[in-house]
Protein backbone atom coordinates (compact mmCIF):
# COMPACT_ATOMS: atom_id res chain seq x y z
CA UNK A 1 0.00 0.00 0.00
CA UNK A 2 1.02 3.59 -0.59
CA UNK A 3 0.10 6.29 1.92
CA UNK A 4 0.23 9.74 0.37
CA UNK A 5 0.62 12.59 2.86
CA UNK A 6 0.13 15.84 1.01
CA UNK A 7 -1.80 18.60 -0.64
CA UNK A 8 -5.21 18.72 -2.31
CA UNK A 9 -6.04 21.62 -4.63
CA UNK A 10 -8.30 22.88 -7.32
CA UNK A 11 -6.32 24.01 -10.37
CA UNK A 12 -7.51 27.07 -12.28
CA UNK A 13 -5.84 26.64 -15.66
CA UNK A 14 -5.56 29.34 -18.34
CA UNK A 15 -4.03 28.70 -21.76
CA UNK A 16 -2.04 31.67 -23.02
CA UNK A 17 -0.04 32.51 -26.13
CA UNK A 18 3.04 33.34 -24.07
CA UNK A 19 3.85 33.05 -20.36
CA UNK A 20 3.87 36.47 -18.65
CA UNK A 21 7.05 38.20 -17.54
CA UNK A 22 7.29 40.16 -14.28
CA UNK A 23 4.72 42.96 -14.32
CA UNK A 24 3.13 41.76 -17.56
CA UNK A 25 -0.51 40.82 -18.15
CA UNK A 26 -1.39 38.32 -20.87
CA UNK A 27 -4.84 37.29 -22.04
CA UNK A 28 -6.26 33.81 -22.53
CA UNK A 29 -9.55 32.68 -24.10
CA UNK A 30 -10.89 31.06 -20.92
CA UNK A 31 -9.98 28.79 -18.05
CA UNK A 32 -10.64 25.29 -16.71
CA UNK A 33 -11.34 24.11 -13.18
CA UNK A 34 -9.46 20.83 -12.68
CA UNK A 35 -8.73 18.80 -9.52
CA UNK A 36 -5.05 18.91 -8.55
CA UNK A 37 -2.55 19.39 -5.74
CA UNK A 38 0.71 17.46 -5.60
CA UNK A 39 -0.54 15.04 -2.96
CA UNK A 40 -3.81 14.31 -4.75
CA UNK A 41 -2.09 14.06 -8.14
CA UNK A 42 0.50 11.59 -6.85
CA UNK A 43 -2.17 9.55 -5.08
CA UNK A 44 -4.17 9.23 -8.30
CA UNK A 45 -1.02 8.47 -10.31
CA UNK A 46 -0.08 5.66 -7.93
CA UNK A 47 -3.61 4.27 -8.01
CA UNK A 48 -3.79 4.33 -11.81
CA UNK A 49 -0.38 2.66 -11.87
CA UNK A 50 -1.81 -0.31 -9.98
CA UNK A 51 -1.29 0.40 -6.26
CA UNK A 52 -3.63 0.45 -3.29
CA UNK A 53 -3.57 4.04 -2.03
CA UNK A 54 -4.70 6.01 1.02
CA UNK A 55 -4.56 9.83 1.02
CA UNK A 56 -4.08 11.95 4.14
CA UNK A 57 -4.73 15.67 3.65
CA UNK A 58 -7.28 18.45 4.15
CA UNK A 59 -9.89 20.42 2.22
CA UNK A 60 -12.06 23.38 3.12
CA UNK A 61 -15.77 23.47 3.82
CA UNK A 62 -16.39 25.23 0.51
CA UNK A 63 -17.54 24.67 -3.03
CA UNK A 64 -14.10 23.56 -4.21
CA UNK A 65 -13.82 20.61 -1.79
CA UNK A 66 -16.08 18.19 -3.67
CA UNK A 67 -14.59 18.76 -7.14
CA UNK A 68 -11.08 18.58 -5.67
CA UNK A 69 -11.80 15.02 -4.49
CA UNK A 70 -14.05 13.93 -7.36
CA UNK A 71 -11.60 11.77 -9.32
CA UNK A 72 -9.93 10.30 -6.25
CA UNK A 73 -12.96 8.64 -4.70
CA UNK A 74 -14.07 7.28 -8.04
CA UNK A 75 -10.66 5.68 -8.50
CA UNK A 76 -10.95 3.75 -5.24
CA UNK A 77 -8.50 5.78 -3.14
CA UNK A 78 -9.09 5.65 0.63
CA UNK A 79 -10.10 9.22 1.57
CA UNK A 80 -10.93 8.61 5.24
CA UNK A 81 -7.78 10.53 6.16
CA UNK A 82 -8.89 13.71 4.35
CA UNK A 83 -10.10 16.19 6.96
CA UNK A 84 -12.56 19.07 6.38
CA UNK A 85 -11.13 22.21 8.02
CA UNK A 86 -12.10 25.86 8.50
CA UNK A 87 -9.89 27.20 5.72
CA UNK A 88 -10.47 27.43 1.97
CA UNK A 89 -9.56 24.47 -0.21
CA UNK A 90 -6.11 24.98 -1.72
CA UNK A 91 -5.94 26.54 -5.17
CA UNK A 92 -3.25 26.54 -7.87
CA UNK A 93 -3.31 29.23 -10.56
CA UNK A 94 -1.69 27.79 -13.68
CA UNK A 95 -0.79 29.42 -17.00
CA UNK A 96 0.13 27.06 -19.86
CA UNK A 97 1.73 28.16 -23.15
CA UNK A 98 1.42 26.47 -26.58
CA UNK A 99 4.59 24.42 -25.95
CA UNK A 100 3.08 22.93 -22.78
CA UNK A 101 5.34 24.87 -20.40
CA UNK A 102 3.70 26.41 -17.35
CA UNK A 103 3.86 28.91 -14.54
CA UNK A 104 2.14 28.01 -11.26
CA UNK A 105 1.17 29.96 -8.15
CA UNK A 106 -0.16 27.87 -5.25
CA UNK A 107 -2.33 29.23 -2.43
CA UNK A 108 -2.07 26.68 0.40
CA UNK A 109 -5.43 27.23 2.12
CA UNK A 110 -6.50 24.03 3.90
CA UNK A 111 -3.18 22.36 3.09
CA UNK A 112 -1.57 24.41 5.85
CA UNK A 113 -3.79 22.53 8.32
CA UNK A 114 -2.61 19.02 7.36
CA UNK A 115 -1.28 17.18 10.43
CA UNK A 116 0.82 14.04 10.75
CA UNK A 117 -1.36 12.90 13.66
CA UNK A 118 -3.99 11.94 11.08
CA UNK A 119 -1.73 9.07 10.02
CA UNK A 120 -2.46 7.25 13.28
CA UNK A 121 -5.80 5.97 11.90
CA UNK A 122 -3.87 3.82 9.42
CA UNK A 123 -2.40 0.36 10.03
CA UNK A 124 0.30 -0.05 7.39
CA UNK A 125 2.36 -3.18 6.83
CA UNK A 126 6.17 -3.11 6.95
CA UNK A 127 7.68 -1.92 3.66
CA UNK A 128 4.54 -0.11 2.60
CA UNK A 129 5.40 3.35 1.27
CA UNK A 130 4.84 6.84 2.65
CA UNK A 131 4.95 9.36 -0.21
CA UNK A 132 5.23 13.08 0.60
CA UNK A 133 5.73 16.44 -1.13
CA UNK A 134 6.44 20.00 0.04
CA UNK A 135 3.00 21.64 -0.14
CA UNK A 136 2.12 20.93 3.50
CA UNK A 137 3.91 22.23 6.63
CA UNK A 138 7.57 21.23 6.99
CA UNK A 139 7.19 20.26 10.65
CA UNK A 140 4.39 17.85 9.72
CA UNK A 141 6.50 16.31 6.93
CA UNK A 142 9.24 15.58 9.47
CA UNK A 143 6.71 14.16 11.94
CA UNK A 144 5.19 11.98 9.20
CA UNK A 145 8.63 10.66 8.23
CA UNK A 146 9.33 9.75 11.86
CA UNK A 147 5.95 8.01 12.08
CA UNK A 148 6.76 5.99 8.95
CA UNK A 149 10.29 5.08 10.02
CA UNK A 150 8.99 3.79 13.36
CA UNK A 151 6.75 1.39 11.40
CA UNK A 152 9.42 0.25 8.93
CA UNK A 153 7.82 1.95 5.94
CA UNK A 154 9.69 3.08 2.84
CA UNK A 155 9.87 6.90 3.05
CA UNK A 156 9.76 8.77 -0.25
CA UNK A 157 9.84 12.56 -0.66
CA UNK A 158 9.28 14.70 -3.72
CA UNK A 159 11.11 17.92 -2.76
CA UNK A 160 8.91 20.18 -4.85
CA UNK A 161 8.62 23.13 -4.85
CA UNK A 162 12.40 23.48 -4.72
CA UNK A 163 14.29 24.04 -1.50
CA UNK A 164 16.50 22.36 1.12
CA UNK A 165 15.71 19.62 3.60
CA UNK A 166 17.14 19.35 7.07
CA UNK A 167 19.76 16.77 7.93
CA UNK A 168 17.23 15.27 10.38
CA UNK A 169 14.73 14.69 7.58
CA UNK A 170 17.37 13.44 5.12
CA UNK A 171 18.33 10.76 7.62
CA UNK A 172 14.76 9.40 7.55
CA UNK A 173 14.37 9.19 3.77
CA UNK A 174 14.83 6.21 1.48
CA UNK A 175 14.09 7.98 -1.82
CA UNK A 176 13.98 11.61 -2.87
CA UNK A 177 12.63 12.73 -6.25
CA UNK A 178 13.56 16.11 -7.71
CA UNK A 179 13.94 17.73 -11.11
CA UNK A 180 17.26 19.08 -12.39
CA UNK A 181 16.67 22.50 -10.76
CA UNK A 182 15.33 21.14 -7.48
CA UNK A 183 18.31 18.83 -7.00
CA UNK A 184 20.63 21.86 -6.93
CA UNK A 185 18.56 23.52 -4.18
CA UNK A 186 18.42 20.24 -2.28
CA UNK A 187 22.18 19.81 -2.58
CA UNK A 188 22.97 23.39 -1.56
CA UNK A 189 21.01 22.94 1.66
CA UNK A 190 23.04 19.84 2.50
CA UNK A 191 26.42 21.29 1.48
CA UNK A 192 26.71 19.69 -1.97
CA UNK A 193 27.21 21.75 -5.13
CA UNK A 194 27.99 21.04 -8.77
CA UNK A 195 26.16 19.80 -11.84
CA UNK A 196 22.80 18.05 -11.25
CA UNK A 197 24.07 14.53 -11.94
CA UNK A 198 27.10 14.96 -9.69
CA UNK A 199 25.00 16.47 -6.92
CA UNK A 200 22.57 13.54 -7.09
CA UNK A 201 25.42 11.04 -6.90
CA UNK A 202 27.01 12.79 -3.91
CA UNK A 203 23.73 13.15 -2.02
CA UNK A 204 23.03 9.47 -2.55
CA UNK A 205 26.47 8.48 -1.28
CA UNK A 206 26.50 10.80 1.74
CA UNK A 207 22.99 10.12 2.99
CA UNK A 208 22.33 6.56 1.86
CA UNK A 209 19.45 7.68 -0.36
CA UNK A 210 18.17 6.80 -3.76
CA UNK A 211 18.10 10.18 -5.55
CA UNK A 212 15.92 10.27 -8.66
CA UNK A 213 16.20 13.29 -10.96
CA UNK A 214 13.61 13.94 -13.66
CA UNK A 215 15.05 15.60 -16.77
CA UNK A 216 12.00 16.50 -18.85
CA UNK A 217 12.42 15.40 -22.45
CA UNK A 218 15.70 13.69 -21.50
CA UNK A 219 13.97 11.18 -19.21
CA UNK A 220 15.25 10.47 -15.70
CA UNK A 221 18.26 9.21 -13.77
CA UNK A 222 18.55 7.71 -10.31
CA UNK A 223 21.62 7.21 -8.13
CA UNK A 224 21.51 4.46 -5.49
CA UNK A 225 24.29 2.45 -3.85
CA UNK A 226 26.85 3.95 -6.22
CA UNK A 227 24.95 2.82 -9.33
CA UNK A 228 23.46 5.18 -11.90
CA UNK A 229 20.14 4.03 -13.35
CA UNK A 230 18.67 5.95 -16.27
CA UNK A 231 15.73 5.91 -18.63
CA UNK A 232 14.89 8.01 -21.67
CA UNK A 233 11.52 9.70 -21.91
CA UNK A 234 8.83 7.98 -23.92
CA UNK A 235 8.28 10.08 -27.08
CA UNK A 236 4.98 12.02 -27.09
CA UNK A 237 3.66 15.25 -28.56
CA UNK A 238 3.79 17.58 -25.56
CA UNK A 239 0.50 19.32 -24.72
CA UNK A 240 0.88 20.16 -21.00
CA UNK A 241 3.71 19.29 -18.58
CA UNK A 242 1.80 20.22 -15.40
CA UNK A 243 1.36 16.68 -14.04
CA UNK A 244 4.52 15.06 -15.42
CA UNK A 245 6.52 15.19 -12.19
CA UNK A 246 3.63 14.08 -9.99
CA UNK A 247 2.83 11.22 -12.34
CA UNK A 248 6.48 10.12 -12.26
CA UNK A 249 6.42 10.09 -8.44
CA UNK A 250 3.19 8.16 -8.12
CA UNK A 251 4.20 5.63 -10.74
CA UNK A 252 7.64 5.16 -9.16
CA UNK A 253 6.05 4.53 -5.76
CA UNK A 254 3.63 2.04 -7.33
CA UNK A 255 6.39 0.18 -9.14
CA UNK A 256 8.50 -0.12 -6.00
CA UNK A 257 5.45 -1.16 -4.01
CA UNK A 258 5.07 -4.04 -6.49
CA UNK A 259 8.68 -5.02 -5.71
CA UNK A 260 10.10 -4.02 -9.07
CA UNK A 261 13.84 -3.39 -9.20
CA UNK A 262 14.96 0.22 -9.22
CA UNK A 263 16.05 0.25 -12.87
CA UNK A 264 12.71 -1.14 -14.03
CA UNK A 265 10.82 1.18 -11.68
CA UNK A 266 12.57 4.27 -13.06
CA UNK A 267 11.73 3.16 -16.59
CA UNK A 268 8.09 2.61 -15.62
CA UNK A 269 7.91 6.03 -13.96
CA UNK A 270 9.57 7.76 -16.93
CA UNK A 271 7.03 6.20 -19.27
CA UNK A 272 4.15 7.36 -17.05
CA UNK A 273 5.50 10.90 -16.72
CA UNK A 274 5.95 11.16 -20.47
CA UNK A 275 2.40 10.02 -21.17
CA UNK A 276 1.04 12.66 -18.79
CA UNK A 277 2.51 15.35 -21.05
CA UNK A 278 0.34 14.25 -23.98
CA UNK A 279 -2.96 15.42 -22.46
CA UNK A 280 -4.08 18.70 -20.84
CA UNK A 281 -4.59 19.26 -17.13
CA UNK A 282 -3.23 17.64 -14.00
CA UNK A 283 -5.30 14.66 -12.86
CA UNK A 284 -7.06 14.51 -16.22
CA UNK A 285 -3.73 13.73 -17.90
CA UNK A 286 -2.55 10.89 -15.62
CA UNK A 287 -2.33 7.62 -17.59
CA UNK A 288 -3.81 4.22 -16.71
CA UNK A 289 -1.74 1.11 -15.99
CA UNK A 290 -2.19 -0.55 -19.39
CA UNK A 291 -0.85 2.49 -21.24
CA UNK A 292 2.10 2.82 -18.86
CA UNK A 293 2.99 -0.86 -19.20
CA UNK A 294 2.92 -0.62 -23.00
CA UNK A 295 5.15 2.46 -23.07
CA UNK A 296 7.54 1.01 -20.46
CA UNK A 297 7.86 -2.18 -22.51
CA UNK A 298 8.99 -0.14 -25.49
CA UNK A 299 11.59 1.66 -23.36
CA UNK A 300 12.80 -1.68 -21.99
CA UNK A 301 13.15 -3.09 -25.48
CA UNK A 302 15.26 -0.08 -26.47
CA UNK A 303 17.50 -0.74 -23.47
CA UNK A 304 17.78 -4.48 -24.14
CA UNK A 305 16.96 -5.07 -27.82
CA UNK A 306 16.17 -8.69 -28.70
CA UNK A 307 18.91 -10.56 -30.54
CA UNK A 308 18.27 -10.52 -34.23
CA UNK A 309 18.08 -13.92 -35.89
CA UNK A 310 20.04 -14.47 -39.06
CA UNK A 311 18.92 -16.80 -41.82
CA UNK A 312 21.62 -19.27 -42.90
TrEMBL record:
User: What top-tier enzyme class does this entry carry?
Assistant: transferase
Catalytic activity, EC? 2.7.1.15
Q: Which residues bind substrate?
A: 9-11, 37-41, 135, 246
Domain spans labelled Carbohydrate kinase PfkB: 2-288
Q: Which Gene3D superfamilies match?
A: 3.40.1190.20
Q: Domain of life here?
A: Bacteria
Please tell me one Gene Ontology term that the record gives under cellular component: cytosol
| Activity regulation (UniProt) | Activated by a monovalent cation that binds near, but not in, the active site. The most likely occupant of the site in vivo is potassium. Ion binding induces a conformational change that may alter substrate affinity.
Query: Which HAMAP family is this protein grouped with?
Result: Ribokinase
Query: Can you say what this protein is called?
Result: Ribokinase
Encoding gene per record: rbsK
Amino acid sequence: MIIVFGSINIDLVARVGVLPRAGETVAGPGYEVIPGGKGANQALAARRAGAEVALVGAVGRDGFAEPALSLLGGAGIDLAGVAPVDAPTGVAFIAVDPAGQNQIVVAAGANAAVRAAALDRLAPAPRDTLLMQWEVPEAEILAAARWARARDLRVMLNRAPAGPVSADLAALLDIVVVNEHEVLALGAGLGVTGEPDAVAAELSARHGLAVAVTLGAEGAVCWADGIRHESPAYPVEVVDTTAAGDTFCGALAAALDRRRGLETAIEFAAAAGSLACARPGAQTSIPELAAIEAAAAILAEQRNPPHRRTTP
